Amino acid sequence: MSTAPTARAQRGFKAPAGLASTAVPEAREAACIEPACIEPGSVAFGRARLALFLAGFSTFSLLYAVQPLLPSFTDEFGVGASQASLALSLATGFLAFSILCAGAVSEAVGRRGLMFASMAGGALLHLGSALAPSWHAILVLRALEGFVLGGVPAVAMAYLAEEIHPRALGATMGLYVGGTAFGGMMGRLGMGALTEFTTWRTAMGVLGLLDLAAALGFLLLLPPSRNFARRRGVNAAYHIGAWAGHLRNRGLPLLFLTGFLGLGVFVGTFNYLTFRLSAAPFSLSQGQISLVFAVFLCGVFASSAAGALADRLGRGPVLTAGVLIMGAGVALTLLPALPGIIAGVVGVTVGFFVVHAVASGWVGRMARGAKGHAASLYLLAYYLGSSCLGSAGGLFWTHGGWPAVVAFNAALLGLALAVAGLLWRGERRAA
User: pTM of the entire structure?
Assistant: First the structure.
C-alpha cells in the first residue's frame, strides 16, 4: 500500500455503513503547511521530539504515581478500595474537564507557555500532596493537580499537528505517546520501589522534584510555534461552535469513544490488579507489585511502532489489531499463575498504546480547523474513561473479584472492536 494519501482520502472521510452518508472531511488544516513545517532530520525536529517526550513523561508520571500506592492508602487512612481509587479517579476526572478549558485557552495564549505552566504547576501540587496531613487534603490536591495538568495533553496534540511535517506526524505522535508510557511506568515503578525503602510521602516528593526539572528542560528544548495564529477576543460562542462542529463530524466521535473505552479498560486493569497481587495466593509486596509496571516499556516501543505502521498501512487495521491484542491480554490475566498474568498485562499494555497512538494521531488528521478543540474533545472522552470506567471496575471487584473485572473489561473491548471496524470501513471507502 502506498504511504501517500490519495486525493480522495485527503478530501474526506466517508461515513461507514450504518451512519449518515455525509462525507466527513479529513482536513488539510490538521497538518502544517510547507515550508514552515519542522522537517524530519533537522535540529528543531530532534528538539521537538525530545521536548514532547518530556511533556508526556512528566504528565503521566505525576498523574499515575498513586496507582501502586492504593493499598498503602487503604492501610494508612482506613478507606476501601473504591475510595482509595479516588486519588487517581479525581485527578483524571478533573483533568478531563480541564482539557476543554485548556484547548480553548491555548487558542488565545499559545501552546508552548501553557504546556510549561501546566507541567510546573502539576509538579508543585504533587509536592503538596506528599506533605498533605489528611486523606481529604490529598484528594483536594490531587483534583487540583489533575486540573492543572490538563494543559499538556490537549495542547501537545495540537502543537504536533500544526508544526510537524505530515509525513512524520504519526511517528512523532507515537513518540509522544511513548513518553506518556515511559512516564506512567516510571511513576508507578518508582513509587513502588522507593516506598520499599522510605515512605510513600518521600517517594512522591522525589517524583515532584524530578518532574519540575523535566518542565524546565521542556521549556528550553521546544521550538516556538511557527504555524499557530492567536485568536484574541474569542467568546464562548466561538468555542461552543468549534466543539459542535467536531461532534457533527461522523468520524471524530468514533475516535472519542475509542479513547474512552481504551483507557477505561487499561486503568481498570491496573487499579485492581494491585489488590489482587497483594492478596493471597500471591501476597506480593509493594515493591514487587511495582515491578509489574515495568511492562510499560513495551508500550513505549509499541506506540512508536504503531504510529509509523499507521502512516504506512492505514489506521483502521492497526487500530483493530490494538483492540484485539488488548482483548487477548485481558483474557490471559484470568490464569492462576503469575507468569500468565504478567503475559496478560503485557498484552493489555501493548494493545492499549497501539490504540491510543493511532486514535490520537487520527484525530489531528481528521479534524477541520480548531485542532486544539478537537484534541480537547478526544482527551475529555479519554480521561472520562479513566475516571468513570476505572472507578466502576471497583464495583465489579468488590462484588465478583477478578473474574467480574475481566468480564466488564471484555464487554467494553467488544464495543471498542465494533467501533474500530466502523472506522476501518470508513477509511477504506475514503481511499
Answer: 0.73
